[in-house]
Amino acid sequence: MAWRNLTHKKMRSFLTLFGIVIGIGGIYFLISLGLGIQQLVTDRVVGGESVKSIDVTTANEKNISLDSDTYTKLKNLPHVIGIGGMYSFAGLVNLRGSSVDAVVYGANDSYLNMLDLKLLSGSLIKTGSDNDILINQSVLRSLDYKKPEDAIGKKITLIIPSLGVEEVQFKKEFTIVGVSADQSGAELYVASDILMAAGAENFNQIRIEASDVDGARSLRSQIKALGLTTTSPIDTVDQIDQVFKFFNLILASFGAIGMIVAILGMFNTITISLLERTREIGLMVALGGRDTDMRMLIIFEATLLSFIGSILGILSATIFGQLINLGLNLFARSRGVTEGFQLFATTWWLVLGTIGFMMLVGLVVVFIPARQAARLNPIDALRRE
């Protein structure tokens, strides 16, 4: 019956539904845009780093150092699911008479896996691989190689002028097994046990992977209590989230303008529909219809409008957003940008929240018309008609 009542005045119901679609679609479009930009910024700033990772360093090695005891102590903390250590030294590599200054990292398997290095060619080094070395793109260019695969298998000599407490010189020939895409500076990686055997003692940095974000926050407090310093992508993500809270609120405020228009349109449609059907409602009450039945009829009409309008609004906003995103990606590719991006975020909680919100708004809007329908006196209604 509610559907029949809505389709009785097709044009009026269509215009009301169109207003709801525009209102819901507008607010959904803007919120999904805000969430998409937030996710895009977070991915670009944080990069491949996991928000569950924690980098541990020491501000004063006289008080506490990153030795094997500290490593074991950190490994046994709750919420730790992965841990890796890294040495860092200034060094240089020699190849075919060319010398390149570089930062030398001695890392174990766990640390390298948590770095999530993107390889252009070859493979990562492994613990126990005494002669393997991984270079980055900056070192590759400095050694006059144009293609990463050309460097794989080549022998280079690594020199670290000062290694360990005794500051001995380290010199060894390695074979290039991989080239990473990193271009931040001349960097290379060897297995940490090689440098440890040569005299390196304390790690320069320890990286920890927590079981979840809450576990990472708890871990940082425990690690700081040991006198160590921690850094984590969580700090950056929290700052980004704080900024985008206000940004998303502003976008939602603009969308709310269209929402208000849709609400007024729904209220107008339901109220006029009630006035036009005074005789019909009076007759139904006279034939035994209860006040509750009249109230539920009006409520169901508003709920039906809200639900259909929400679904169509979300679908329209999603399609429109994807078309814009496709156009921007094509434009970016025409300008030489190879990596795609997604400007709009579609999440299940946003979809359900939007539908639930509009249904709730529909119930609030229809409160007065529904109460009028329930209180309608059938004798007065039939007399007026």
Describe the structure.
This protein is an alpha+beta fold. The protein folds into 2 domains: 2-46 and 240-384, no CATH class; 53-231, no CATH class. It has helices spanning 2-8, 10-46, 68-75, 109-115, 137-142, 148-151, 192-197, 213-225, 233-276, 278-286, 291-334, 348-365, 367-374, 378-384; strands at 53-57, 80-95, 98-107, 119-122, 132-136, 155-163, 168-180, 187-191, 205-210, 229-231. It has a 6-stranded mixed beta barrel. The chain is elongated.
Structural class: alpha+beta
Largest sheet: 6 strands, mixed, barrel
Query: Mean of residue pLDDT?
Result: 80
Q: Which runs of at least 5 residues are low in confidence (pLDDT < 50)?
A: none
Number of E-type strands: 10
| Strand arrangement in the largest pleated sheet | 2-3-8-5-7-6
Helix content: 55-70%
Distance between the termini: 21 Å
Query: What is the element string, with H for helices and E for strands?
Result: HHEHEEHEEHHEEEHEHEHHHHHH
What is Rg? Answer: 33 Å
As a percent range, the share of strand residues is: 15-25%
Number of domains: 2
Coarse morphology? elongated
Features:
385 residues, alpha+beta, single chain, six-stranded mixed β-barrel
Describe the secondary structure blueprint for this structure.
Blueprint: H1 2-8, H2 10-46, E1 53-57, H3 68-75, E2 80-95, E3 98-107, H4 109-115, E4 119-122, E5 132-136, H5 137-142, H6 148-151, E6 155-163, E7 168-180, E8 187-191, H7 192-197, E9 205-210, H8 213-225, E10 229-231, H9 233-276, H10 278-286, H11 291-334, H12 348-365, H13 367-374, H14 378-384
Parallel strand pairs: 3-8, 5-7
Antiparallel strand pairs: 1-9, 1-10, 2-3, 2-6, 2-9, 4-7, 5-8, 6-7
Helix pairs in contact: 1-11, 2-9, 2-11, 10-14, 11-12, 11-13
